[in-house]
Specification:
The chain is an all-alpha fold. Helix content is 81%, strand content 0%. The protein is globular, with a radius of gyration of 19 Å.
Length: 209
């Protein structure tokens, strides 16, 4: 009955609209990495620094996605596997950094956290709107959407943390948000890794595309 088998895997993606969308959000994220990273260092905020590194990771994610766009499922899945591992590693780093800041007792700049967090939220909402129509598909597309979604969630958390730092006069809200952002990155990274491994297993069983 081999002749009755059907291949239900998604075809290689080479969508011009998706390519243009990736290019736009790549530049948006690279720009916000520079802005938020500088603000995070000047304001002693682990949440801003974590979010800035997330912008950098997303820019790399979009660049990798552009590089493998239109290639076979195997290569897209391998790229997604790398991105998933990077997301998980980022989560571990953020959790560790948040712990360090909490122990040192440094108090971040609440106004800077709120202002930059709001600008980052606008940038990520624009990116999310651009990529929303492309959120489903293989693990590569899935990783792109999860990165963008996580960023928008993180920005809201950073703004709330800025308000809490101002209200309490301590750096604990900043550290707590940093840990939460790290856990979110870990969870999303494992999701992408799991789907990528499933796709690689499917490609091994039914090669040739």
């Amino acid at each position: 009955m081999a002749g009755c088998a059907h291949d239900h895997r998604p075809p290689p993606i080479d969508d011009a609209r998706y390519r243009r969308a990736l290019i736009v959000v790549l530049f948006v994220n690279a720009g916000m990495f520079a802005v938020e990273g500088t603000a995070g260092v000047l304001g002693n905020s682990v949440a801003l620094q974590a979010d800035a590194l997330d912008f950098l990771g997303d820019a790399a994610t979009y660049a990798i996605s552009l590089a493998v766009l239109g290639l076979a499922l195997k290569w897209r899945a391998l790229a997604a596997l790398l991105k998933g591992a990077t997301m998980a590693a980022f989560g571990i780093w953020v959790i560790g950094t948040a712990g360090y800041y909490a122990l040192t007792g440094e108090i971040p700049s609440a106004p800077l956290m709120g202002g930059i967090g709001l600008a980052a939220l606008v940038a990520n909402l624009v990116s999310a709107l651009i990529l929303f129509r492309f959120r489903s598909g293989d693990s590569n597309r899935r990783s792109v959407w999860l990165c963008t979604r996580n960023d928008a969630i993180s920005n809201v958390a950073v703004i709330i943390a800025g308000g809490a730092v101002f209200a309490t006069g301590t750096g604990w809200p900043d550290a707590v948000v940093g840990v939460a952002m790290g856990c979110l990155a870990l969870h999303s990274g494992f999701q992408v890794i799991r789907q990528a491994r499933q796709e690689l297993a499917t490609e091994t069983v039914a090669p040739g595309y």
